[in-house]
Each structure stands twice: as C-alpha cells, then as structure tokens.
Write a structure and sequence with these properties.
Blueprint (H helix, E strand, L loop, with lengths): L4 E8 L2 E5 L7 E8 L3 E8 L3 E11 L7 E4 L9 E3 L10 H5 L1 H10 L13 E5 L1 E6 L2 E7 L6 E7 L4 E7 L4 E2 L3 E11 L1 H12 L9 E5 L1 H4 L5 H11 L8 E4 L22 H10 L3 E6 L3 E3 L3 H5 L6 E2 L2 E2 L9 E3 L5 H17 L4 E4 L15 H16 L3 E4 L4 H4 L5 E3 L25 H10 L9 E3 L14 H14 L2 E4 L8 H11 L5 E7 L4 E8 L2 E8 L4 E2 L4
Helix pairs in contact: 11-12
Length: 553
Amino acid sequence: MKESKIYIKYKVDNRVYEDDMYQNQHYTIEETATGDNSIRFVIAPREKIELIAFGLKYLRPSAPGEKFFVNGYQAWTTSREMSADDVQKGLTPLAKIIPFAKILLELTGDYGFTEYSGKPGRFHSFTYTYFRKENTVELYGSLNERTGFTVFKTDMDAGVMSIEKDVDGTVITEPYELLNVVKITGEYDEVFDKYFKLMEIRKPRITHLAGYTSWYNYFGNIDEKIINRDIDNFAAVGENADIFQVDDGYQTFVGDWIDPNPAKFPSGMKAVADRIHDKGYMAGLWLAPFNASKKSRVAREHPEWFLQKGGKPVTTIYNWGGAYTFDIYNEGAREYISHCFDVVLNEWGFDLVKLDFLYSHCIKPRNGKCRGQLMAEGMDFLRECVGDKLILGCGVPLGSAFGVVDACRIGCDVVTRYKGRYYTNLHICAEIPSAHNAINNAIFRRHLDGRAFCNDPDVFFLRDYNLKYTDMQKKLLARVNHLFGNVLFVSDDVGTYNEQQKELLFKTFAPSNAMIISAEYTDKDYITIKYLEDGERKTLAFDLKEGETSSEL
C-alpha cells in the first residue's frame, strides 16, 4: 500500500467536486499508516459535505500463477479464486436488454453501483480479498464496514490495485473514518485467524447445527399436516440432529408474520414449536423481516411504514408478487417488527429465526447514510429484536453480518435439479440459484466458518423423489457440505429413507474432523480438494458442471 494516490468525490451545496489532495477549502484528510501493514484515513469536514466516492490506487504487480479471491457482494453472490485470464461476469447482456430483468437483478447485487469491465484479470471483492501464490496468502481486509462497504479492485495485467469505499450518500459534519484496512501475509488459515482477531469478532455461539428445513421439498406449499408428519418422521434421526425449521409458507402474506394462515395452520405456530420441542429439537422459523408483500395486511394498513417514492411505497423486491421494504427509521415500522419477533420467539417459543432478503434494507443510500451504514444499523436492530435467540442470516452483505448472526448462508440457493434450468448456464447474474454456485461458495468461503459465524452452505438431498440429481450428484453435494459447512440441513421426509440413506444422513450430519490442505480449480470446471480426515490424507476431485467424480464418496 506504499506510494498510493487518493481520490475523493463529494458535494458541497449541491455542487460536485473531485480532488486528489489531502486538504482543501472543504476538508482535511489524515492518513495513519503502520509500515506496509495497515492504513487508515479520516476526513474532517470544514463544512457540511455529502460524500460520493473515496479510494486510493497504487502499484501491486501480480506474479505469474497468482490467484485473486473475489468475495461477492452478498451471501448469494458467487465467490471464488480467479486467475489473470478469468473474467468476473456481471449481468448477462440478455438481462440488460430486458428492462424488468435488469431492474430485478440490480436490486439483488452490486450491478447498479459497481463496474464490471468484462475483461480478463480485472476483479473486485467486497470487505476483504487475498492474493495467493501456492501456499503464501497476502490478505487485505477492512476493519470497519460500518462507514461503508470496502471494495478491493485489481487489474492483474496492469499490476494496479485500488481500495475504494462505497460512501455514496454519506452526509458528514464531523470527522469520519473513510477507510481502515490491514494487510496480512502468511499461510491460508494463519492470515484469517489474524484478520478476525484484529476485527475483534466474537466467536460464534454455535459450532455445528444439523436438521431439517421445509423449503426444498414443498417450497411455500406447506401446511400443518405436512409439517407434523415430517416432524414425527424426523424424530427417527434422534440425537444426530439439533433443529427442525419451518420455512416460507406458514404466514398469510410475507410481512404478516404473526398471522399464520388459518386454513393451513389451524392450530397456530405455537403448537408447531411445541411439537418440535417435544421431539427434542430446537424450533426454527423463516422470516424476511425487512419486507412485506404488496398484498399484506401491514402494507395495506400502514403504507407510511415503508420506503417511499413520490409519497407512495416503492417496490424493492419482486418476489411474492412484489414487495416493499420497511423503513426501520420510522418508529411505527420499528415497533411492528420488534413486536413480530416478540411473538415468534417468546409467545410461540421458536429458538432460531432464519432471516432472509436482508440486503433489501440497503439497496439505496438514504437519510444521509451510505449502504454500509444502513446495513450495519439494520443488523444491529435485528440483533436487538432477537436478543439471545439464534439468528441464521441469508441474503446479506457478509461484512455486515460478521459477529452479529450466529450462522449464515454463504452461497446461493441450491435447486432441485443439479444442472439447473435453462437460465442457470446463461449466467444471468452472480446470485443465480444453482448447485454449482452453492458448492463453489461452500469451498471458497470456508475461511468464514468458526470465525465470522457458522457457515450454512444450504441443503443437501438424499431423497429419491421430487428431485433431478443422480446418486453421485447427491453424494457429492452431501460430501462437500460435510467437509466445508457446519449448518447441515435436509428438506427430505426422512420417513421415506431406506437404511442406506439413513446411514448417509447420520454420517453427513456428524461434525467433520477434516483439515483442508488445499482447494482450488485445477481446470475450468474441475475442482481438487486435498485434506486430512481421520488421520488419513485424502483427495476429492470432481467435475463441478457434471457433478461427477472418481473419488470415493
């Protein structure tokens, strides 16, 4: 980070300024550096300033064969090591020419505020990144995402690196930390141990969780009869599991969280939680706490509680027929969300909440705050609401979830077809649901497990129905999840399992003692993992696209 040059863009009295100086008539910027290992910038405004962009750029030549790690914008975004001849893809051209698709996809990712060049060797990574040459890792990590998301960019061909802060929309009148970044060099696990120690992230309260979730068998088509049957059948798993989670479909509409659908759940959700507890499991429940369907009662009765445009609620998510996002800076909205959690956790008695679509809280800067500020304050609010109960985060910019959630999804949804549907191979966006992306992220975000939270790679499947996986593909997904994840879910009715399926379930649910030596792409679609397990050195090599391997599973 030596010999860097800063860049700042901002507004004063609605006039835009750009500069590369450490001080001018509007501000002074103080730089604090510790050798070549850390750098911090604080801006002191001389008057009210609205920040637009800040960054520094410097030479950082890439060595032949070196890899750059791309950490995607949020939990679902594809994240992996890239070589100089790889391309980080943004929205597909097809998405760009279909107006609705472009709007929809820009809401889920960073496409609206981050440049994708489409050229080899030009990459960007959120919150942290690393360069790896064989066993040596050079990690760059932000120590503060509360003042804006940190984006690390490289042009490996030109040997240039930049560190930029997404401060767009931040209004300041007092000193403000623009950037706080550390560089750590060492072996893979060594650098991540040091990084999370410097961030003072508390260790996750859970280290392993195994159980059931309803989504990938029934999706939203659940009812009391189905859930009660699967609870009873899941009891055969016994002490090999910890949790039974009810996913989307129990509520009347998204947003009406404490109005369970009376036709589908006539006994109410407390009865469901009680039945789960009677079988010896923790009870989990899915919510998208920042969102409400346009059809929901809460949206009809309180449109003023949502983000507005032209005095009306604005559509921020196109799931569920279109949905709005609560404005948590509105006291009524804040009290409503808090009350919903109180009912779910204290009256109904659920032990864990899976909180989804969290990125919607920070889709656009507002109230004088940038995306990173909004997301940090949103996560603080959720932790305040949930208290000591467990949070499984999903669809969240990961830096904002560090040390806040107990467990977190670290990849996109798997789907019930291993090879996906026609749009999977089109690479419409980096958040597209697919087994390929889920497996990839389970491997390449493994460093977060046990440091930032407990990693949830999403479900694996063992059932023989309502699924388009070969036996090898099912076993491969289960094996990868077991090696790299510590939140292990199935969506199968285990009452349909034969003895071999039960045996594989118990084996996959058990905590892994594997120590990963290396994991990397050794060809375009070919991944090779080397590890120690039960004192034995092993290799798992497979074709990710086909889900085929010659290794023993």
